[in-house]
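Reposting from the mailing list since nobody answered there.

I have sequence plus structure tokens for a pair of proteins and want to know whether others read the tokens the same way I do. The first protein:
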Amino acid sequence: MTSEAEAVAAATETDRSSLQTAEAGFVARLRRLVESAWTLRVITALICLNAVTLGLETSASVMAAAGDVLLTVDRIIVAIFALEIAAKLVVYRGSFFRSGWNIFDFVIVGISLAPASQSLSVLRALRILRVLRLISVVPDLRRVVQALLAAIPGMTSIVGVLLLVFYVSSVLATKLFGSHPDPNMQEWFGTIGASMYTLFQIMTLESWSMGIVRPTLELFPWAWVFFVPFIVLTSFAVLNLFIAIIVNAMQSQHEAEREAQSTEIRSIAHEEGDAILRQLEGLRADIADMRRRLDERG
């Protein structure tokens, strides 16, 4: 009885080992498929195709002519995206959610799979977010986004300065121009909120001269003393600081990637050098052994 139990246990252990080996082989093949350049190109092409189909779905005439085809293509693409995410979950398992880009893809595809009923019709519009997967798929786009995220801490102080300038300028504009009975002055500078919105429009240089400043100058000829420094400070100084920080962050990101590549190359070269040294030591040992044998033979 004991020998039979041991035989059964041994057979069970063998079956379990074979199953684990087969599973490991399947996961390895699936990993190669998921991480292959061919898969990346296919997913990128599908994202671009999906962007086109989602755009065509906004046309009533196109939907009337080929709506069924577009919806079928959309469902097929979503199914492929879901299979891709499922394959990554099988390959990476818990480590899948350690990558922010994987979480981003998971959320985008999850929104696509959510039922878009009449009460949740907004989810139907959110399908266009699938196009944003290009950011996680294309390395250059991902590098730009990472640089923008890295620049956010440096922008906080500039945002604080900009908000302070906006608040002070809004209070001044409301006090200086908002008391005038002219309807335009009341609309543009009647309250601090209206003044902030008007000054934001001026900062963006959108219809600021003929639309706001010149009508204000007709009532307050000295108003240029207020508007010119505000435009110079916000539009040309502060906003250029934003650009400088973003450019610096992108440069730092590029240097970090280049340093990582250099480190990897040095590591590979060091490993190859060690392998060559080991081979040379082996050759020296073989040569010394041959010499010893020749000396023993006479």
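The second protein, same order (residues first, tokens after):
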Amino acid sequence: MSADSEPQEPPARDESDLLQLAPAGLAWLVVHARPRAEKKIVIFCQTRSFASYLPVRDKTHIYGNRKRTFSSPLFPGYVFCCVDPAGRMLLRQNQHVANVLDVYDQTGLLAQLRQVRQVLTAGQIVEVLPYLEAGHRVRVTGGPLKGLEAVVIRAKGKTRIVLNVDMIVQSVVAEIDGDLLVPA
């Protein structure tokens, strides 16, 4: 692949056991990507057998009579990777990486990413917002998001929950029936 060509879509992989605590010697990192380089970093990680997670959502654009659907990163500029110290150095040297951020709360980050993955799988993502601290914590008691804990907000007469990813200071919003929420 030439440096100018658009990256291929990373092959689909089973992510059911991907977001687990790293074994000894490995650690999850947040890779801050250069603009529009997230998928290139995922491909780089796959060629080196590094675990990586790039949450994506499908977007559809209409150009005249044609519809085009493509996958877009949910958190533009961020890829989550599990590597050893040598892998961390390889990532830092990659031309598509702007910075590598250490994760001090591995368990917390992975729990938040599993929640985001669950919302993506359920197709409930409404929008991505800047990080929100205010609000009340709630637990979802039913439906495809059962068990999630999040912050509740009301916008435009609808009940929404906000899932925060502290490490990258981003939030995901999902619309939900208010009857399915109880205080956490």
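Reply #1 (J.P.):
I read it the same way you do. Helices lie at 38-47, 85-93, 106-122.
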